[in-house]
Amino acid sequence: MSILVTGGAGYIGSHTCIELIKAGYSVVVLDDLSNSSREAICRIGGLVGQEVPFIEGSIADRSVLQHLFSNYQFSAVLHFAGSKAVGESVSHPLMYYRNNIGGTTVLLEEMARAGVKQLVFSSSATVYGDAPNPPFREDQPLGQPTNPYGKTKLFIEELCRDVAASDAQACGGPDNNPWHIALLRYFNPVGAHESGRIGEDPRGTPNNLMPYITQVAVGRRPSLSIFGSDYDTPDGTCIRDFIHVVDLAEGHVAALKHLSAMPGCTAINLGTGVGYSVLDVVHAMEAAIGRPIPHTFAPRRPGDSAATVSDPSRAKAILGWATRRTLADMCTDAWRWQQANPQGYGE
Ligand code: NAD
Ligand code: UFG
């Protein structure tokens, strides 16, 4: 069975390609390399012992998609491609709406044209907005994301729900090839493949906590700023549901395996259900590397919520999937990757 993986050269997509191939799927990657490197594709190939078919191109390029759908028999699409920097989305909202929403629209149109109607989409816990009482359940009302990036995730979820609902209208009767769409809401993916060969390689200054910490640890940056120490949490710093990227990748394989039993559109949280504070992560990384991480406290970052934690019970019930890796694993693996690749993929 062949799977089209959009954004497969990126952080989460690259780890998922490995788990897909290990599970027996054939994978074709479509990525425009706007936030990744061809080296990641080579390294996936090295880890799985086979070359991974790779097409450099955009999900917004209809001709590329038509070429792909006519040359391969895809059973499903795993859709990671998109822009994801929250700050950049505030300064360049149209770029985010065009790339994420416009690109996804073209992809869905070409999937429908090709009769490939099984989709796994990379959504985010950001769709819960600033909901007050974690853990968050998929059936609770969605919130208001505070930035254009988050809004693109919310709108694409809506778009998928409308597309799935359109099946019933399309031919005035039961559709014999209905959409099956899984909206996977990721919490905070961190860590790296245990080989240390692939990992997170942000361009420029990292926005996210874990790559910032590992860059301090490896000497690329002098000190971590912890944004806010006066939240209403046990140690005053924010709480997040950090999930090992390989657990997340395995969650995608589980979603793909169960997709044919999920007609319509189904939202599923991918998280551990356990919250750790920013200081917990700093201390876990200090234990992993065996020395202190220089850090100072700074004012709160606008838009941050105090605590974000998943209720992972739907994933367990529907997919039979739960996380296996600990915070210590996340830190050890993130550090192994950063230590072996101080400049990431080096481009
Ligand atoms: P990433 O930037 O490493 O990967 C995204 C990939 O998509 C990159 O390789 C990029 O080059 C590619 N891409 C971007 N626009 C494209 C286009 N128009 N056509 C083809 N390729 C394109 O990001 P990631 O962390 O691996 O995230 C993957 C997905 O998961 C994204 O949709 C992201 O929004 C979502 N997500 C990520 C997180 C997180 O914390 N990392 C959390 C929630 C959701
Ligand atoms: N943080 C710091 N210092 C840093 C970076 C982050 O203290 O240098 C703190 C943040 O203030 C926050 C916590 O670490 O309290 C986690 O921040 P991240 O940026 O790593 O993650 P977020 O929870 O803000 O956002 C992540 C993804 C988003 C996604 C969201 C969904 O980056 O794409 O989870 O919950 F939308």
Helix and strand layout, with pairings?
Layout: E1 2-6, H1 11-22, E2 26-31, H2 38-48, E3 54-56, H3 62-71, E4 74-79, H4 86-91, H5 93-114, E5 118-124, H6 148-170, E6 180-186, E7 188-190, H7 209-217, E8 224-227, E9 239-240, E10 242-244, H8 245-258, E11 264-270, E12 276-277, H9 278-289, E13 295-298, E14 307-308, H10 313-319, H11 327-340
Parallel strand pairs: 1-2, 1-4, 2-3, 4-5, 5-6, 6-11, 7-10, 8-13, 9-14
Antiparallel strand pairs: 9-12
Walk me through this protein's architecture.
This protein is α/β, with parallel strands linked by helices and 347 residues long. The chain is built from eleven helices and 14 strands. The protein has helices at residues 11-22, 38-48, 62-71, 86-91, 93-114, 148-170, 209-217, 245-258, 278-289, 313-319, 327-340, and strands at residues 2-6, 26-31, 54-56, 74-79, 118-124, 180-186, 188-190, 224-227, 239-240, 242-244, 264-270, 276-277, 295-298, 307-308. The strands form four sheets. Strands 3-2-1-4-5-6-11 form a seven-stranded parallel beta sheet, sandwiched between helices. It has a three-stranded mixed beta sheet with strand order 12-9-14. The longest helix has 23 residues, at 148-170. The chain is globular. The chain starts with a strand and ends in a 7-residue tail after the last helix. The model has no long low-confidence stretch (mean pLDDT 96). The site of nicotinamide-adenine-dinucleotide (NAD) has 28 residues, from helix 1, strand 2, helix 5 and strand 5.
What can be said about the biggest beta sheet?
7 strands, parallel
Number of helices: 11
Rg result? 20 Å
Question: What is the CA–CA distance across the termini?
Answer: 33 Å
Elements, N to C (H/E): EHEHEHEHHEHEEHEEEHEEHEEHH
Number of strands: 14
Which parts are unreliable, with pLDDT below 50 for 5 consecutive residues or more?
none
Given the helix and strand composition, which structural class is it? alpha/beta
